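Entry type: protein chain
Record version: 2
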Amino acid sequence: MEKYLNRVADDILAKKLEASGAVLIVGPKWCGKTSTGERYARSVLYLQDPRQSEIYKRIADVDPTLLLAGETPRLIDEWQMAPSLWDAIRFTIDQRKKENQFILTGSTCVDWNSVSHSGTGRISRMLMRPMSLFESLDSSGVVSLKALFDKEKKIQGSSNHSISDLAKLIIRGGWPSSIGKSDTVALQKAIDYVESIIQIDISRENGVEKNPVLVRAFMKSYARNLATMASIPTLQKDIVGYDETLSDKTIASYIQSLRNLFVIEDLPAWSPALRSKTSMRTSLKRFFVDPSIGTALFRMTPGKLMEDFNYFGYLFESLCIRDLRVYASALDGEVFHYHDRNDVEVDAVVCLNDGRWGAIEIKLGTSEIEKGVNHLLKLADMVDTEKMSEPSFLMVLTGTGYAFTQKDGIIVVPIGCLKD
């Protein structure tokens, strides 16, 4: 049995179980939801068990409470295969009047019209993503995002990752079963994941058959436009030559299906209070939930990736956004990007729900640090601090090198030093 690597989601799940009757863990397939749920469960129901799956579904339709019997918390894996369980779980929680009763996992969005109650007040939700570099033991974690929000003054450390190392980490991705595997095996696992999405999962998502050739062409277009604010017409033009009838509506349906499968996770725009009436852009930035999805679509090896340094930069940004999202989730926060009509832009803004925020520019090479600093200072000067707090930190997140604080107060941190 493979050793379980601690996840940021562990503490989140533990806290939610203390306060809720049940916790629903959602996220992409293969990201470790079941393994994490198993650590806290005292009994398990695997709805995907091929020996019992059909029987479980029949029981769920007749008397779903039979499937809920067992030591608590009871893990119901891939619960959406029997949606009637949702209302039964909610009702059971009401009857027992106890927390820490059930853990539900699911890798596709369910049709919520099929359930009669949202579960508010009984069932808490949490999103789990592929592993960050700290979780996969590829970051020393000497710089803590939480400590930065708490105004930690001492920033010190270094990362030994080379550019070649980063290429391998991007291609491997944050999939638990790929950790510790060879580059060749990790690439093949990512390819198998992508092929399953294209050939099977996207059509199963809403029961509408989709042409795998067009799905692949669309996903490649998305991969070419990673970390940009590409519009649907831009994506559409990138696919011309496969099917002239691929409409805006069709592309929008592909995007929604891949979001429902937690394959696409775009980055929303940040709208802070500003001193002047600067017009902000509200477009999403395009991202997959893990950078390995993009490289798998093009069958990129580390060597091939290093031959295209421009694209490498976009994929590195994707890697950093994935990690920042994982770390922010532990702090009750979210990640955004900023871009206004004057082309002042900042790659990531981590916003906590208590009002604190920090801005981050992502630069693969250290030669770009000064450019990132200028963007951060411009944004900080524009924010109206009478209406919202001053930034807890301004950071340039780099590929390698040292973690330190500059004389201007801006911190420089390699991704291989960061943790939640």
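Comment: The first helix runs from residue 8 to 19.
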